[in-house]
Amino acid sequence: MAEIRAGAAAALCWVAVQAQAAVPALTEALQDRDSRVRRLSGLALARIGPDARPAVPALIQALVDEDMKVRAAATSALGRIGPDAATGLVEAVQKNKAARIRAAAAAALPTIAGQASAAVPTLIGALKDKDVGVRLTAVWSLERLGREARPAVPALLEAMKEDLLRPAVQKALKSINR
Questions:
Q1: What is the 3-state secondary structure (H, E, C) of the chain?
Q2: Tell me: the pLDDT tens digits for 158-171?
Q3: The pTM is what?
Q4: Domain annotation for the chain: domains and CATH numbers
């Protein structure tokens, strides 16, 4: 049965341009018990791009999937969906109760082209998260944004006071100041 579900998701990867009608089924398939089905559903949603915006909440949940390939597919899909995904990721970083999801959403934010203006203030806020993993992920994400993260420099300098973050912050500041 999983073979059939995986085959259907794989087929939708190739016809995704006309597959907007499949978004609800693909969204549901992100929770399938078979990791191949989840991964291929994420890849199909990535190919659909901005028209897959209704899947954003499920894709954010998939960012913490046990399978690395599913997480990568979800990140790719969110990046391809674009600005609508950025809104969902910002909300997840700021409001989700689960630290794993806050960190995963912070890591995914830099993948959305042209969204640094939304990402940087959110990541600055995440530097004060109660969970060290979220704070560290925010530093890494700011590093990935490079020069676009310049408004975060004062907050990063403040974060240098935390021993666990100091090496990552130093690296981020080098990336930002290049």
A1: CHHHHHHHHHHHHHCHHHCHHHHHHHHHHCCCCCHHHHHHHHHHHHHHHHHHHHHHHHHHHHCCCCCHHHHHHHHHHHHHHCHHHHHHHHHHHHHCCCHHHHHHHHHHHHHCCCCHHHHHHHHHHHCCCCCHHHHHHHHHHHHHHHHHHHHHHHHHHHHCCCCCCHHHHHHHHHHHCC
A2: 999 999 999 999 99
A3: 0.79
A4: 1-81 (1.25.10.10), 82-178 (1.25.10.10)
